[in-house]
Amino acid sequence: MNIQLHKRLSRKFIIAILTSSSFVTACTFSVIWFYLANIERLDILYDALSVSSAIGIIFGFTLLSLLGFSLIIFISSFIIYLIYTAHEKELKHYDGLTHTFTTVCMCNSFVMCLILISAFCLQFFGDLNGFIVFALATCAITLFSYGLCHKLIFSVKSYIDKDNERTVKYLQKKSVKRFLPALLIIPAFTQIFPLIFIAGQLDFVEENNSFLQVAIFFMLSVVLIIVGIFPGVIIINEKKNKNILQIITYTLIIIPVSILVLTMIFRPTPNMIINMSMNLSGISDWRTHQYYISIESHPPAMFDGALWNTRFYKEIPSRFFITGVSIFSLGNIKLVCPTRINDARIASLKTTVDDFDEYDIRIKKLKQTAMACVPFDKGEIHLWDSPISEPIFYQKVKSTANSKFLNLLHELK
């Protein structure tokens, strides 16, 4: 009885902490601090933290961003859990079948990764027909799943003996033998989404051998598959002895730990989640805009024409115009940067998997670029994207246009 009371009090205490305003505020301030620290602009942190009305909104969008990112990375875990839940009443009658169920799903995922990457390489390096290669790869994965299910599920003596003892012989049903292996392929195929997502954020040193790049990408894909399916496997194997609240607790622990493991390999992961939450909440806007500023508040000479496209109009003598990007806007603070911040930001969200030092260089470049950003009071700068004819520029600006395996990754994007 005392143990039961202790558990109830512990649950209420944890729920009280998670729903308290102090916890929400601390999480929100941490997100803002991390975002500004990443661009080394903590000089505006105090003014940003003085705003309390947007705390709940920022916290909500941070959770939404984390959920969206988790849905992409852990989609195979969600799918495998749904499939298992739909067949749980039958599967739980067979000792060890739950573990076999998850083993088949994991093996399918690994084989899918090997076959699919090999197929893309054959299509790219061998210049083969992509449709035919993909069809053959799909057939190979399907045949493997059916063969594995036959060996590990439908031919195992302990399962057959248990099935014969039951009134309804579940494993001997033609529909189960026909459709269960096909269902267990679905978590493997959903791994394509995180692979494509991560592939779009990868770079390689172009001088390296293409086959070495393929090997590195394959190893990274295997790690991503393990990270993606691991939470679902753990939850399913623990579900038999846990109630719903314990399952939720496991989920809330396992997913952040898995994201932490992913961060060790794919370092831009926290930046991607934080940037996503900032964009969704409207605090950052990485689109290029035109702004006008009063000459009385800021002299035009402060804005280098090569960086800001600084200009004015004869008909508007008291104001001048710049081109920039508002990367942070909260309360009365608006941080506006030159447009070159976009290239530095995009580069900082990628990682060069065969040269880990390159990521530090890109982050350093992002911080250096952000030093040119100017913080404004919101009343000092105004958005004006409507075109005005015949501007006069303070400085003429010359506009510039923005490995085989790299080309393959670009095809996957």
Rg, please?
A: 27 Å
How many strands in all?
9
Question: Which ranges are low-confidence, i.e. pLDDT below 50, for 5 or more consecutive residues?
Answer: 397-402
Structural class by helix and strand composition:
alpha+beta
How many domains in all?
A: 3
The 3D shape can be described as elongated
Q: Helical residue percent?
A: 55-70%
| Mean pLDDT over the full residue set | 81
Determine the strand fraction and express it as a percent band. Answer: 5-15%
Number of helices: 18
Q: How far apart are the termini?
A: 57 Å
Instruction: Describe the main β-sheet briefly.
Output: 7 strands, antiparallel
Question: SSE order in H/E notation?
Answer: HHHHHHHHHHHEHHHEHEEEHEHEEEH
Structure in words:
Helices cover 63% and strands 11% of the residues. By secondary structure, it is α+β, with helices and mostly antiparallel strands. The chain has three domains: 1-35; 73-268, no CATH class; 283-398, no CATH class. Strands 2, 3, 4, 5, 7, 8 and 9 form a seven-stranded antiparallel β-sheet that branches. The protein has a two-stranded parallel ribbon with strand order 1-6. Strand 3 and strand 4 (316-330) form a beta hairpin. Helix 7 crosses helix 9 and helix 12 (210-239) runs antiparallel to helix 13.
